[in-house]
Amino acid sequence: MNKVLVIDPDEGIRGSLKTFLNQLEYTVILANSGKQGISLFEKEEPDLVITALEMDDIDGIEILKTIKKIESNTQVIIITSIDDMNSIILAMQNGAYDFLSKPLDLQKFKFIIQRALETSLLSKKLELVNINLTDKDNYNLIVGRSPQIKEIIKKIGQISINKVNVLIQGESGTGKELISRVIHNSGITKEQPFIAVNSAALPETLLETELFGHEKGAFTGAVRSKKGKFELAGEGTIFLDEISEMSLNLQTKLLRVIQEREFIRVGGEETIPMKARIIVATNQNLQKLVEERKFREDLYYRIKVFSIYVPPLRERKEDIPILIVHFLQKINRELHKNVRKVPYEVLDMLQQYNWVGNVRELENVLLQAVVLAKGEAVEKENIMLKSKDKQIIIEERDDYSLESVEKKHIVNVLEKVKGDKHEAAKLLKISRQTLYNKIKAFSIDTKFSE
Q1: What is the Cα–Cα distance from 383 to 389, expressed in whole angstroms?
Q2: Cα atoms found within 13 Å of the Cα of residue 8, Cβ hemisphere only
Q3: C-beta of residue 128 within 8 angstroms of C-beta of residue 377
């Protein structure tokens, strides 16, 4: 039976709460002061604390802080007759499960108590994934154990010892810039500057001066000379993100820089040597853009001396658990939180989800969950996923089964030949009898007729 400690100086309220909680079959411990409440908390080790904000000795916020120091997993609900915004904020900042105003809505109160107890028990269960935090974690690492990630790390080992140009392709949110930074920091360029430029963030004229710099008086507003990113990169790395968004005119100028290993500032005459490694990234299919004449073919081959493809998270779901650990460590440190436990049902939900936004979306979902967490565990109701993508997962699971794929293919072929099984068998390169057997085995609708 769950044990609830009630701390309130009003005898009438203590009695009413005791009656209400007894009806819910909870064991109730009563305290009429903050000091007595803390003493009983240490002695009785209750599962939940309900305390008034206004006390004669120690107020509810101080009671909350003390209890959280003694046992961080125990949830505390604060009740008050004063609806004060500052007190609410202070209570939630210090880990209160909820802050309720009198008179209490008993149905809502009952639900909150149940959820608070579940959270307390959840934080203490052994069947949780326990995240061990350390101060030695390096967040500038590629995280993953999947074969795809291991291959990327192998490639980084090969290319980090020289300055070949690198093309990184993958969907948005997969971590292309992170990979470029690891390449830079893993080899001969690690002591040199790393300069990142988003090619889609600036119009063509501004992007040109951003890349190559300009001389004083080169255009209206150029009151002094400015070094460009290629010059600032020195012998390090320049990372050009969203290279597919660069205009054809700028592509031509970039091609010349790569070929000649030199450039000229806008409005200038002096030739400046280009010594940096160039890494470019895109979420587009550059080969297709070349075929559509939207990207220069000669530039494509110049930047693709070495290429890396970063697979979407949905294609390497075995990396999700270790990514969760990684992001919880990072978020806890940044937010000064201590959320280190992930229920298996939450882990399963995250592994089944179709991560359209990839690793970036996973980090954002965990960030929201940590901010809303009231204990040491990530709570299921705080995992905010898009319901549309949940449906996509179900559909993709069906599509990946061999039987489902084969059935759909046979149905498509039958539809194409308008039910002609003889012609369908020829197209499928199977005997007619085999086709009949598969139609029967897969329960394909017999609306198709010869």
Answers
A1: 14
A2: 24
A3: yes
Query: Tokens at residue 323, please?
Result: 């990514």
Helix (H) or strand (E) holding 240: strand 237-241
Question: Cα(277)–Cα(162) distance, rounded to whole angstroms?
Answer: 9
CA atoms within 13 A on the CB side of 270: 9
Domains of the chain, first to last: 3-124 (3.40.50.2300), 147-310 (3.40.50.300), 316-384 (1.10.8.60), 401-441 (1.10.10.60)
Strands (E), 117-160: 128-130
Residue 401 one-letter amino acid:
S
Residue closest to 259 by CA, chosen among 158, 161, 165: 165
Q: Give Cα separations from 251 to 65, 268, 295 (angstroms).
A: 60, 20, 8
Q: What is the pLDDT of residue 393?
A: 42
438 Ramachandran zone, left/alpha/beta (phi>0; psi -120 to 50): alpha
Distance in angstroms (rounded) separating the CA atoms of residues 25 and 197 = 62
The rounded distance, in Å, linking the Cα atoms of 174 and 185 is 19
**Whether pTM exceeds 0.90:** no
Percent of all residues in the chain with a pLDDT value above 70, rounded to a whole number: 90
Q: Average model confidence (pLDDT) for the chain? A: 85
Whether the CB-CB separation of 171 and 358 falls below 8 Å is answered with yes
Residue type, 16: S
Q: DSSP secondary-structure letter at 371? A: H
Span 215-272, pLDDT tens digits? 998 888 888 999 999 999 999 999 999 999 999 999 999 999 999 999 999 999 899 9
In the numeric block, which tokens belong to residue 27? Answer: 């064991």
Helix, coil or strand: residue 20:
helix
